[in-house]
Structure formats: C-alpha cells, structure tokens
Amino acid sequence: MTSSTTTVYVLGSIHLAKPELYPLKQPIEDAYKKSDILVVELDPSSKASLAVIQKSMQTQGLYTGGKSLKSELDHKTYIMLKKYLLKVGLSLDMMEPMRPWTVVVQLSMMEMMRLGYDPQLGIDRHFLQMAKRDHKKILELETAQEQMALLSKDDKQFQDLLLRYSLEEMDEMRPLLDTMFESWKRGDAETLAGVVSSSLVADARLDGIFDAMITKRNYAMSKKIEGYLKEDKTYFVVVGAGHVVGEEGIVTLLLKRGYHVIQK
Predict the structure, then answer these.
(1) How far apart are CA 178 and CA 49, in angstroms?
(2) If pLDDT is split at 50, 70 and 90, which confidence band does 216 have?
C-alpha cells in the first residue's frame, strides 16, 4: 500500500508452516529487500518478550487458592476436555492446575505440530531471522504484555468459551489449516477470510472472543501501520493472515481511510 511519502508492504503470515512453503515467491522476498524496516506482531525470541511470556505462564497460567479446571469450568466444557485428553492420550490430572488459556495454547500447538505444521517454519520467524542477519531494524505492532493480558483475561466465562471453542475446533483443525495453507499460497484472500471467521461467526456466543482476539487488534494495528504511511521509510509488515483479510481486516480498514492498496 502507498501514500504520498512511502510504501508499506503488508504480508499475511502463517505462524506455523510446512517445508513446501519455501522458497517464498520472489515478489515477497523482493519487497523485504526493498524495505528499511521489518515490522512483526511480536518478536517472541527477544529477551524482553521471553521474560514477559515466562512470567505470565508462571503467575497467570495456573490456578491458585485450591481452584482447578474441575472447579472453574462449566461441566460440559470439562467433560469435553476430559474426552479429548483421553482420545489423545494426555493426563487430565497434569492439566488440572492450568487455567484454560494455558491449556488452549498447549493443546493447539501440539495438534498443529502433529499435523505437520512447524513453528520453526513460520513466515514471521523466517523474516525475523533474515532481519537479524541483515541488521535491519525490527519493530513490533504489539507487546508481549498486551498479548498475554488478552489470553489470560480474568473472566471466567471468557476462559471457558475460549477452551470450549478450541476443543470444538480440534476435529476440524486439519481441513481448516490445510485450506488456510493452500489459500495463502494462491493469494486467495476471500477463502482465507472465510476460514478465519466461519466457526466464530456461526456461534453468537463467540462474538466477544472474535472481537477481542481479532477485530480490536485489527483496528489498533491498522492505526500503527497508518503512522508508517506518513513517514518516508519503507516498511515490510508481517502480521497474522487472519488480521489482514476480511471486512474489518487491516487492508480493508486502510482502504477505507483512503490509502492505495494493490495485491501482488
């Protein structure tokens, strides 16, 4: 996308990917080379981010005061979790002290890796490694504090719905991930947007989660990107593909603000 002063390249990222994604198409690599600054959602490998994530897992990832998943979850959600763990051969006792968001992070990562998606091959990680090698300036759209606060939100209903939604999606994860992966490779933004919103939009109970996890963040990130468009440096922005597409995705929000956008 362009303004009167600069160009900002925006690439939708897949945080876990497969080897066949690489090498990336030449126009993507060329856009990175033309850019002065790399922008990512978050650099989880930085010392500051790692410290925040580890502290959050220790202080906000576990129940205290005798609470547990059994005492805090809705009975239906708890039974769903119990059945899923039995199916995949994991111990419920081991997870009892974990708050729902911690369980979601662990189970989702394990399932994606089981399906062949590797966090070491994520697109954002790919460009972070290149930028550090090239001594290119790196900026972050969000902080580790913001991301961890969102996940660890102290709201019993939010936590319960987050876990229930994640468990409901586990059986559909393979077709969803595969569709997202293939649509990303084709540059098919419409299909990608449908994958991101389909399950959440279909269930009104999840409106709050979608709003918190996707929509509000899109508005905040698009505002930061708009700031880059007022400068004279060239930026290469790598952000989760789910934030780029859709009626309230970053691209549409910036189009509505009058910026010129071309998909390459």
Answers:
(1) 30
(2) very high
* Residue found under tokens 């002290």: 97
- The label of the residue with tokens 């952000």 reads 239
Phi, psi of 159 (to 5 degrees): -65, -40
* Average pLDDT of span 205-227: 90
Asked if residues 218 and 250 have their Cβ atoms less than 8 Å apart, the reply is yes
DSSP designation for 187: T
| Strand-pair partners of 8 | 235
pLDDT tens digits for range 20-64: 999 999 999 999 999 999 999 999 989 999 999 999 999 999 999
* Site of tokens 């102290």: 154
Q: Compute the distance between CA of residue 186 and CA of residue 168 in angstroms, rounded to an integer.
A: 28
**118 forms bridges with which residues in the sheet?**
17
Retrieve residue 152's tokens: 């660890």
Cis peptide leading into residue 23 (ω within 30°): yes
Split at pLDDT 50, 70, 90, the class of 204 is: low
pLDDT confidence bin for 261, thresholds 50/70/90: confident
246 contacts: CB under 8 Å, gap ≥ 6: 193, 196, 197, 252
Q: Are 95 and 69 in contact (CB under 8 A)?
A: yes
Instruction: Determine contact, residues 96/69, Cβ cutoff 8 Å.
Output: yes
- 109-119 mean pLDDT: 94
CA distances from 55 to 40, 51, 58, 228 (A): 22, 6, 5, 31
Token pair 């019993």 in the structure block, residue? 156
